[in-house]
Amino acid sequence: MGFLLSKSLDANMKKQQEFMLHNTRLQMERQILMQNQMRERQMAMQIAWSREFVKYYGTFFTVAAVGLTAGAIRRKKPFLIAPLIPLGFVLTYQMDSAYGTLIHRMRGEAENILTSECDRLDMPHGIPTFESIEKARRAKSSLASFLEK
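The structure assignment produced for this chain is given below.
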């Protein structure tokens, strides 16, 4: 009789463990999907910001280019065009960021770093552990209680 009850309990416990494992996996998959959607939305906002910036900066660059060129021709001083060089670099970078392949090149470089230079990504003192976090929490807690006295 006890053997049958034990066997039934073991089967139920195994089913419950499988159910919990399935739920944990499902929860983790949902969390990963949610985090990825949040990342995609943040990236979309960043690209949209770059495109808006290009509109305003492009207008500024055009006005500055026309004004500086007209001033250089009128006063016969070609060095007045010199500010267009750094302003042009900024505009080119922003255009690449907003409409070009900058993101693809950055992703490729990031993948290269992750595969061949992963030692650069190590955190000082390694990855935090539960013990190190608890030690810091206890130290802070004891310091706070000491200061209260």
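Interim note for the steering committee: The mean pLDDT is 91. The helical segments are 2-75, 84-99, 102-116, 130-148.
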